[in-house]
Write a structure and sequence with these properties.
This protein has 370 residues and is an alpha+beta fold. The protein contains eleven helices and 16 strands. The strands form three sheets. It has an eight-stranded mixed beta sheet with strand order 3-2-1-4-5-6-9-10, with helices on both faces. It has a six-stranded antiparallel beta sheet with strand order 11-12-16-15-14-13, with helices on one face. It is globular, with a radius of gyration of 21 Å.
Length: 370
């Protein structure tokens, strides 16, 4: 409240905002921590993965106990954030963001923060947010590189509200989304380019990933800090202050004169003829060509075309004679070296030990069912 850019009025506005964080791995863990400490009213956390020891180098919300228990990241993050700031409401979704659930999960929120590790999900977020006029902020980090970009489509923005509009506490009657929200539009001329304006298609050919380049934790923290700073401008009712560029920082290799390497690309206006924000064709929202996804830095494949309930306890009994089985109520872990399967209650699974999609599907069919 002492910071003049926010003040009492802005702090009250933050307490009324609902933010979705898609992915609470490296970047998302920092972003969620910063927003909880800033007093944002309601955080929706969406993540499909669970905590492992190798995550702890950069995923600052989690600890060794979370990894030992293989807790889903969304649930572990929720538990830690409640201890950070008990006045902030947090809801966790252990789920993959897909065309089938994206509207239900992101529709009610004021701002979407992208902390994912794959372009498929980013293009899905872009489609929904452009269609609905919802602001979202891209953040990414790989190696020692951090980047961020604001996307402000034509449509509604936040209304700065007074204390009389404060959100009710989470309880069995009101639920976690009991926020009074009455957005008002920002000026159409303030809209920016969308993700498809800059990148009409996902990158092809060799690109750096966590598998090939690793990831430096300061790059993660920088990407998240850029994202949250821009988000606080928006959430406090000042979208006109937000950056209109895609900004990138290289933290390890400096320019010849010793200055930090930095680049910016203008996003001040939509690209003429953009398929998404110009022609309003939303292929990713329609689910066209949605692939099976390999997970960054994990030597893993996600199987998510089987949307059906799975009784984890019954599956554990079925598998106990075929390998090591552990279950914690949130997921089931089945180890049969050199592979392991992590199965979630909705039928989704992570097959570790391979990036061969055919082999991953075969293992799923063999041990879970076709």
């Amino acid at each position: 409240m002492l910071f003049p850019g926010i003040g009492l009025k802005g702090q009250q506005a933050l307490g009324l905002r609902h933010v979705a964080i898609v992915g609470v791995g490296a970047t998302g863990a920092v972003t969620a921590t910063l927003l909880a400490r800033a007093g944002v009213g309601l955080l929706t956390l969406i993540d499909r993965d669970f905590v492992e020891p190798s995550n702890l180098q950069r995923q600052i919300l989690y600890d060794e106990e979370d990894a030992r228990n293989a807790l889903p990241k969304a649930e572990a993050a929720k538990q830690h954030l409640r201890r950070v700031n008990s006045s902030v409401m947090v809801e966790a979704h252990v789920a993959d963001l897909t065309p089938a659930n994206v509207e239900a999960l992101l529709g009610p929120v004021d701002l979407v923060l992208d902390c994912t590790d794959n372009y498929e999900t980013r293009y899905l977020i872009n489609d929904l947010c452009v269609r609905d006029g919802k602001a979202w902020i891209y953040a990414a980090a790989v190696g020692a590189y951090a980047a961020g970009m604001n996307v402000l489509p034509q449509g509604p923005g936040p209304r700065v509200q007074g204390p009389e509009d404060a959100p009710r506490r989470m309880d069995s009657q009101s639920g976690p989304r009991a926020l009074n929200r009455d957005p008002s539009p920002w000026k159409p001329e303030a809209s920016t380019a969308c993700l498809a304006c800059l990148f009409p298609e996902p990158p092809t050919g060799p690109v750096e990933t966590c598998d090939t380049a690793g990831i430096l934790s300061p790059a993660v923290n920088l990407a998240a800090s850029i994202q949250v700073a821009e988000g606080l401008k928006f959430l406090s009712g000042q979208p006109e202050l937000m950056r209109r560029t895609l900004v990138g920082y290289e933290l390890w290799t400096n320019a010849p004169d010793g200055r930090q390497a930095r680049s910016e690309l203008s996003t001040s206006a939509p690209r003429t003829g953009c398929e998404v924000c110009g022609q309003r064709i939303f292929r990713h929202l329609a689910g066209e060509g949605r692939p099976t996804i390999t997970l960054c830095g994990r030597n893993s494949v996600q199987i998510h075309e089987h949307q059906r309930p799975v009784d984890l306890h019954a599956l554990a009994r079925k598998l106990e004679s075929s390998g090591r089985v552990r279950t914690n109520g949130h997921l089931l872990r089945f180890d049969r070296p050199p592979h392991s399967l992590t199965v979630f209650p909705d039928g989704r699974a992570l097959v570790q030990g391979t990036t061969d999609i055919g082999l991953a599907r075969s293992l799923y069919a063999r041990f879970v069912g076709a």
